[in-house]
């Protein structure tokens, strides 16, 4: 009997358990599941597929079968989970005994903060923002308003739209030539529970505004306008701050309207929220998302069904930004991965993958040089799991933005505490990530210089680093697409 056939009794067991699971609040634990065979991998994938019905919250998934899965479960559902794991003979360990207790210890207990001397200057900004702590969305907005007031020549407050609950999605433009310079977009907090991401984006703002007079920084700000939106899902973020209950603190989606329906077992289930990073029009609904409104990865009824994703789309495609944007980065947690496109399936890459990969490797090397933190570089499908509908992939496919990345911040994938990053790690995380962001900004500067040189009489250059490879693979390109090749590979084609 093959494992495909032997999975049938397990499917029957899962089906019988679905009607018994409870949604009554209870203490939550996290288990790490480690499959060692195709049968065990298939069993865990069945759990994952039915996670919303079983009240399981998968923190980490591994669809290639070579790594572990982390899943949070309430005390009432633990017996169901353990029965299924026992039936499939899957190895597991409990990594967090009480998630709410960890949340209170990491994020709510009063304690003196201890930082090294070199971090001291970055802990509290001149405008009063405390980078040693997580903060509320209104506090972020107030700080950005103060910066726009204090640095009117450098900073402009912007709003790209309103959320489902009517909050303004605020950010700031930072640059010395904001109307004409190249644009580097950075957003964070599209997943509500990933608190370290908005904090890191705010730290970027602090670096740019507090050091704008440094010669290197000033040169950068004369050529690049940074558009930074620290929290593009403020409804979800504020909801996660409203309680230490793990079901609330670890909420992932936005707060869209409630959808009610009966499941296969006759239970009336009412759930709300859309995973905003599955809601963009990039291979929508194809992989890594769900049609179940109760799922953590529910993609929504249609692409761009949510006001938050429409706001990002409209801003990126606006006249103000579209033809000027050279960089787009969206910050997430966790796993320590610097992700390039595309994420909907394995081994799917854009045509300029060489350029993207080289810059990403330089960025992660600069990041590692700060504290020794190691990052992996690759696509989301190759390094994590296939998932369609992401903002970064939509931007890369739809626009002419060159350097597009999704960054999964600290901690590393093997860490057991995942989304509940200790506040003592906030500044190191932000500082090392800024080192990587600087590398991308420098790549934008270099590309701008190359494009400017190409426009000068008598100059003949290759704008694209991939020109030589393109011509090795297709020598006829210079004559097949002469206009494109003249603009991007003039030297390689001898078109000067």
UniProtKB/TrEMBL annotation:
Keyword check for Ligase: no
The protein's required cofactor(s) are namely:
Zn(2+)
Q: Which GO terms describe its cellular component?
A: extracellular space
- What residue stretches are annotated with the Peptidase M14 domain? 133-444
Record domain ShKT: where:
460-496
Q: Which domain of life is it from?
A: Eukaryota
Please name the GO terms that the record assigns under molecular function. metallocarboxypeptidase activity; zinc ion binding
Signal peptide residues on this chain, from the entry's feature table:
1-19
GO biological process terms, semicolon-separated? proteolysis
Q: Which Gene3D superfamilies does the record match to this protein?
A: Metallocarboxypeptidase-like, Zn peptidases
What SMART domains does this protein map onto?
Zn_pept (SM00631)
* UniProt KW Signal keyword: yes
Q: Keywords in alphabetical order, please.
A: Carboxypeptidase, Disulfide bond, Hydrolase, Metal-binding, Metalloprotease, Protease, Signal, Zinc
Q: Which family does it belong to?
A: Belongs to the peptidase M14 family.
Q: What name appears for this protein in its UniProt entry?
A: ShKT domain-containing protein
Q: Which organism is it from?
A: Pristionchus pacificus
């Amino acid at each position: 009997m093959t494992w495909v056939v032997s999975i049938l009794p397990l499917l029957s067991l899962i089906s019988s358990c679905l009607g018994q699971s409870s949604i009554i609040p209870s203490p939550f634990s996290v288990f790490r599941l480690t499959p060692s065979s195709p049968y065990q991998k298939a069993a865990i994938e069945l759990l994952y597929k039915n996670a919303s019905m079983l009240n399981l919250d998968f923190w980490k998934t591994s669809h290639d079968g070579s790594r572990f899965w982390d899943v949070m479960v309430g005390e009432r559902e633990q017996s169901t989970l353990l029965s299924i794991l026992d039936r499939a003979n899957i190895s597991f360990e409990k990594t967090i005994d009480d998630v709410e207790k960890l949340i209170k210890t990491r994020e709510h207990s009063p304690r003196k903060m201890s930082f090294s001397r070199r971090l001291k200057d970055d802990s509290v900004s001149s405008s009063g923002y405390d980078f040693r702590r997580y903060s509320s969305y209104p506090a972020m907005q107030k700080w950005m308003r103060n910066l726009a007031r204090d640095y009117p020549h450098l900073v402009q407050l912007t709003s790209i739209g309103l959320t489902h609950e009517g909050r303004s999605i605020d950010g700031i433009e930072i640059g010395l030539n904001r109307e004409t310079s190249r644009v580097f977009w950075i957003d964070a907090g599209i997943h509500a529970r990933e608190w370290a991401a908005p904090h890191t984006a705010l730290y970027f703002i602090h670096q740019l505004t507090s050091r704008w007079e440094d010669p290197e920084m000033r040169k950068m700000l004369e050529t690049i306008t940074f558009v930074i939106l620290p929290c593009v899902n403020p409804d979800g973020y504020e909801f996660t701050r409203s309680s230490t209950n793990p079901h609330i603190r670890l909420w992932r989606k936005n707060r869209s309207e409630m959808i009610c329906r009966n499941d296969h077992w006759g239970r009336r289930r009412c759930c709300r929220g859309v995973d905003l990073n599955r809601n963009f029009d990039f291979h929508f609904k194809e992989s890594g998302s769900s049609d179940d409104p109760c799922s953590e990865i529910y993609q929504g009824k249609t692409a761009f069904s949510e006001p938050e994703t429409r706001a990002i789309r409209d801003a990126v495609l606006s006249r103000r930004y579209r033809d000027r944007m050279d960089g787009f980065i969206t910050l997430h947690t966790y796993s320590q991965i610097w992700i390039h496109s595309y994420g909907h399936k394995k081994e799917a890459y854009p045509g300029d993958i060489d350029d993207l990969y080289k810059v990403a490797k330089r960025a992660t090397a600069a990041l590692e040089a700060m504290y020794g933190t190691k990052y992996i570089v690759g696509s989301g499908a190759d390094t994590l799991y296939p998932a369609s509908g992401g903002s970064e992939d939509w931007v890369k496919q739809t626009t002419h933005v060159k350097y597009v990345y999704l960054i999964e911040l600290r901690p590393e994938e093997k860490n057991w505490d995942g989304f509940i990053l200790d506040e003592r790690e906030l500044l190191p995380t932000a500082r090392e990530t800024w080192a990587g962001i600087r590398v991308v900004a420098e790549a934008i500067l270099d590309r701008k210089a190359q494009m400017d040189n190409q426009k000068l009489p008598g100059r003949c250059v290759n704008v694209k680093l991939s020109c030589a490879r393109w011509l090795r693979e297709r020598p006829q390109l210079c004559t097949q697409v002469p206009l494109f090749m003249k603009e991007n590979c003039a030297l390689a084609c001898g078109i000067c």
